[in-house]
């Protein structure tokens, strides 16, 4: 059976111990940058995690599997790997982050060329992001307490809500 959370099996592990260590170091560095990108507006998350997945595929398939099964990052990686898709929430977050970043650059730049160049680059990236498809699987709606209680069969929680 196909496991939807299973990562792709498209790369082989390096035989050289030195190369494996270098790929492993690159993977860890990319994960670190990806995590930093979750809070820093100019630093992207998904490209670094894709790089980490590729590096881990060559150094440690167990770490690659762990990354693809991560509850926060795994769905993004699987959507991109299978469909080249970006979820709507991720698109919105990226566009807002770029807008805020451009506003900061525009307000703090000493030369007018800087915001123009930054805005041009950000606009190109924004067009690329917006033109990517959304995942074909439906995004899970934000779980309401009634829905969670009903799905788990917890009738007493439903009674307490009423």
TrEMBL record:
Keyword Transmembrane helix: yes
Biased composition (Polar residues): 153-162
Region of interest (Disordered), residue spans: 134-162
Keywords from the named record: Membrane, Transmembrane, Transmembrane helix
Domain of life (superkingdom): Bacteria
Transmembrane spans: 26-57, 90-107
One GO cellular component, as annotated: plasma membrane
PANTHER family: INNER MEMBRANE PROTEIN YBAN
Protein name in the entry: DUF454 domain-containing protein
Organism: Azospirillum brasilense
